[in-house]
Design brief:
The structure is a single chain. The chain is an alpha+beta fold and about 140 residues long. The chain is built from three helices and seven strands, in the order E-H-H-E-E-E-E-E-E-H. It has helices at about 10-20, 25-30, 120-140, and strands at about 1-10, 30-40, 50-55, 60-70, 75-80, 85-95, 100-110. A seven-stranded antiparallel sheet has the order 1-7-6-5-4-3-2. Helix 1 crosses helix 3. The chain starts with a strand and ends with a helix.
Length: about 140
């Protein structure tokens, strides 16, 4: 399991606004290349983001599903990226003064990704999620009032 945390200069509300906008998903999630559709009720549990992973022309269409939405604290997803498999991802947002602390907890839960030894899998997810949090902060900072 990979846990990555970042202290952000933007507000928790700004980060939550980015998470609520499913169309921004490939802008901050490393590996997602485009969004094809977003459920009208995103990010309510059971709603989906239909996205593609990979680099054109080698993209694969898949979906990520909201498992839980905590309007003041974050989201939990079942992120799909077959043929690699599926991962459980939780993004937690906690206000901290004028800024916030955001944590991504992620691990493979289904498919070939689970075959990769945990230390190697965690290291790869760590690198990816450090960049994802950097991108998330960049987007959220631009959504401040």
């Amino acid at each position: 399991m990979s846990v990555v945390e970042r202290r952000m200069a933007c507000s928790a509300d700004a980060v939550l606004r980015v998470l609520r906008d499913g169309w921004l998903y490939p802008t901050w999630v490393v590996g997602a290349s485009r969004v094809r559709a977003v459920s009208d009720d995103w990010p309510e549990p059971g709603s989906r983001i239909s996205h593609s992973v990979g680099l054109w022309p080698f993209t694969i269409d898949d979906d990520s599903v909201s498992l839980a939405w905590f309007p003041e604290h974050g989201i939990e997803l079942q992120a799909r990226g077959w043929p690699a498999g599926e991962a459980r991802v939780r993004v937690s947002v906690v206000a901290d003064g004028p800024g916030c602390v955001v944590r991504i907890t992620e691990d493979a839960v289904r498919g070939p990704g689970t075959w990769v030894p945990r230390p190697i899998r965690s290291a790869a997810l760590h690198v990816r999620n450090v960049e994802s949090l950097r991108r998330l902060e960049w987007l959220a900072a631009r959504r401040e009032p």
